[in-house]
Specification:
Elements lengths: L1 E2 L22 E2 L11 E2 L4 E2 L5 H5 L4 E5 L2 H14 L21 E4 L2 E5 L4 H17 L6 E10 L7 E8 L6 E6 L2 E6 L4 H11 L7 E8 L19 H13 L2 E5 L2 H10 L3 E11 L10 H22 L8
Helix pairs in contact: 2-7, 3-6, 4-7
The protein binds 1-O-phosphono-alpha-D-ribofuranose and uracil.
């Protein structure tokens, strides 16, 4: 295992991801250390072309979300909230050399887009985790801020995921490796989820709950929608499925949480998933919110995470 954990820090506490002293990022690939150069192709970064420790060594919070525009908006918001607008801190896309993903750094906060679905976020996470490893980052908290479909809860509610589950309501992510299926756990950091929930209590009119999040491979048939180009099941079957999901503890559905939870867990990253719900899937399938309401809802996870980061940095009362 190619870990940058110094020998002196190797005595473990009861928390499997926490070492006495600093918590480093683990990459679990014996080949990486012997590589002369590591090109992070989809991020347009590399170990020979960029001084990754100088560029990213102070990162403590990594926020990821599907849409490039949303992650740029989050970066601009964090710049304001951290009081860095006046300091000449520019917002520039670090991955401008590629249009696969975008990345912005604002002080200790990294904001990155991951596109839609498991394959897209998985590629980004492989390269991001190696980036954090090469940059010798420690004590990282990583949070996915996204949108989702709710089940049995009011649209606009924010769901903090305790466990990501698959389409069978199981807390697992099945990765096909060569011609094997490797099953990985999708548990998220419970303490971090509680900390975020407590943080949400300080925001007025901010409906928030902790629950399971179901991650699917598709937005339409995979989420039981009746409005895709293909649909081979009845309305009754759809409602029955979603009600069974609700009974199993699922409160929202999106498309990245299982692989995100599994990869972060394996690499020693404290991770959370915070998604706003855009609709109640027991009521409808189409997202028909007025634009201003959609914008307001999408900002909710950003507001919560900004408050959380400011609290962690001891800045909570200093900005809006
Ligand atoms: O809000 P984001 O991060 O884009 O995520 C959700 O939105 C997309 C579907 O519209 C999926 O990627 C789903 O996970
Ligand atoms: O219903 C929804 C809404 C947003 N994202 C999803 O994956 N599903």
């Amino acid at each position: 295992m190619a870990s940058i954990l110094p020998a002196s820090n190797k005595s473990m506490t009861s928390d499997r991801n926490t070492y006495v002293g600093k918590r480093f990022v683990h990459v679990k690939n014996p080949y990486l250390d012997s590589m002369d150069e590591d090109i992070l192709y989809h991020l347009d970064l590399g170990t020979k072309t960029h001084n990754l420790p100088a560029m990213f060594g102070d990162v403590k919070f990594v926020c990821v979300g599907g849409s490039p525009n949303r992650m740029k908006a989050f970066a601009l918001f964090m710049r304001k909230e951290l009081g860095l607008e006046e300091s000449g801190e520019h917002i520039k896309d670090i991955c401008a050399g590629t249009d696969r993903y975008c990345m912005y750094k604002i002080g200790p906060v990294l904001s990155i887009s991951h596109g839609m679905g498991i394959p897209s976020i998985s590629i980004m996470l492989h390269e991001l985790i190696k980036l954090l490893h090469h940059a010798q980052c420690c004590d990282i908290t990583i949070i996915r801020i996204g949108t989702s479909g709710g089940i049995g809860i009011t649209p606009g509610s924010v769901v903090i995921t305790d466990t990501a589950v698959d389409s069978f309501f199981k807390p697992r992510f099945e990765q096909v490796i060569l011609d094997n299926i490797v099953t990985r756990s999708t548990e998220l950091d419970k303490e971090l989820a509680e900390e975020l929930f407590n943080c949400s209590k300080g925001i007025p009119n901010f409906p928030t709950l902790i629950g399971h999040t179901m991650c699917t491979y598709d937005f339409y048939e995979g989420q039981g929608r009746l409005d895709g180009a293909l649909c081979s099941f009845s309305r009754e079957k759809k409602v029955d499925y979603l009600k069974r999901a609700y009974k199993a503890g699922v409160r929202n559905i999106e498309m990245e949480s299982t692989v995100f939870a599994a990869m972060c867990r394996l690499c020693g990253l404290k991770a959370a998933v915070v998604c706003v719900t855009l609709l109640d899937r027991l009521e409808c399938d189409q997202i028909n919110l007025p634009h201003d309401v959609l914008v307001d809802y999408q900002q909710r996870p950003q507001l919560l995470i900004s408050n959380f980061i400011k609290r962690r940095l001891g800045l909570h009362d200093q900005t809006s």
